[in-house]
Design a protein that fits this description.
The chain is an alpha/beta fold. It has eleven helices and eleven strands. The strands form three sheets. The protein has a seven-stranded mixed sheet with strand order 2-11-10-3-7-4-6, sandwiched between helices. Strands 1-5 form a two-stranded parallel ribbon. The chain has a two-stranded antiparallel ribbon with strand order 8-9. Strand 8 and strand 9 form a beta hairpin. The longest helix is centred in the first third of the chain and has 22 residues. The chain is globular and about 55 Å long. It starts with 23 loop residues before the first strand and ends with a helix.
């Protein structure tokens, strides 16, 4: 089957029942009642109207200074070679992209434009290697970031014939509940932190590909620290540990906005990103995590407006040598 004749989401393989549940704090009855109409209105809007609203909201949030200090501080450390004006332009773009992600991800039903499969794939050799792994009956490990539109990227991956299970955290509120519901509609399984490594390994063996965001800060005790834009960033070791246990190849898949109106994303694929060879380094889990994180950084550097600079990515620092001795 070619990628142009991809299956519809409702024809995709269903994940196991225990991965089809939403864990978190649902909205209260009043909020649920109100947001039902809000979500229906967003679904009714045309893609052009949603995009116009996203641009307005993003520009407004930037102008009001919501988390702007965090964004500009992140950019000053990560991209010191840029001018202040360039960094402010990137910051404004990040706000607009975040607004687009929300408004594009909330509608029920088909959230992708009719020509979504025509937007192309960069890194076709890597993509074919991923598809070959899935065709063998075993899953791969798919890594992405809060970049472009990661929610719709998952939709695209499923439609192109790769069943996924998303590694997620329990979240609160109507917005997060709606996004989780839409993930289940893809369909995608939801894997939560408790017992995650075992669930990830079992997903690989079933032929499903764990889909994980590798750009979130974790508490120091649960993380490995790897370079990211010149600073150490706390990062989950779950991907590297699962790769070590299962032998599953790791691919970085990013959904890059191509400048056209609406949710039109080109997939950029890199991989397989191999772990270090036996004896190559003292800490293969950290080294493998660093290699994959470096691939994320390469893509973000090419399209910095599309990453979520609003996140306090470097807020968790490695324990000091003094602390480690206590």
């Amino acid at each position: 089957m070619s990628d142009q004749s991809v299956p519809q989401a409702n024809a995709a393989k269903l994940p196991p029942e225990h991965l089809r549940r939403i864990i978190g704090t649902p909205p209260g009855p009043v909020v649920k009642f109100v947001t039902r109409f809000v979500f229906a209105f967003i679904t009714w809007l045309s893609p052009a109207s949603r995009d116009a609203i996203a641009r307005f909201v993003g520009n407004l949030a930037y102008t009001l200074g919501i988390r702007r200090r965090v964004v500009l501080d992140n950019l000053a450390h990560a991209l010191p070679e840029k001018t202040d004006a360039e960094r402010r332009d990137i910051a404004r773009g990040a706000y607009i992209n975040m607004s687009r992600v929300v408004l594009e991800s909330l509608p029920s039903g088909d959230r992708l434009p009719a020509d979504w499969a025509e937007q192309g794939i960069e890194g076709t050799e890597a993509w074919e290697a991923l598809k070959a792994r899935v065709a063998s009956g075993k899953g791969a490990l798919i890594v992405t970031a809060h970049f472009g539109n990661w929610e719709l990227l998952g939709d695209m991956v499923v439609r192109r014939g790769v069943p996924i299970d998303a590694l997620v955290r329990p979240l609160k509120g109507a917005l997060n509940t709606r996004i989780a519901e839409n993930r289940l509609r893809l369909p995608a399984g939801l894997i939560y932190p408790r017992g995650a490594i075992q669930e990830l390994a079992e997903a690989v063996e079933r032929g499903e590909s764990p889909f994980m965001l590798l750009d979130q800060a974790l508490p120091a005790k649960a993380a490995v620290f790897v370079p990211f834009f010149g600073r150490l960033a706390s990062t989950t070791p779950a991907m590297a540990v699962t790769a070590q246990r299962t032998g599953a190849p790791v691919f970085v898949v990013m959904g890059v906005r191509n400048g056209k109106l609406g949710a039109r994303l080109r997939m950029e694929v890199e991989g397989p990103i191999l772990p270090p060879a036996p004896g190559e380094c003292e800490d293969p889990i950290t080294e493998h995590t660093a290699r994959v994180t470096a691939a994320l950084e390469r893509c973000i550097r090419k399209y910095p407006h599309q990453w979520m600079w609003l996140h306090r990515r470097w807020k968790v620092q490695p324990p000091s040598a003094t602390d480690a001795k206590r």
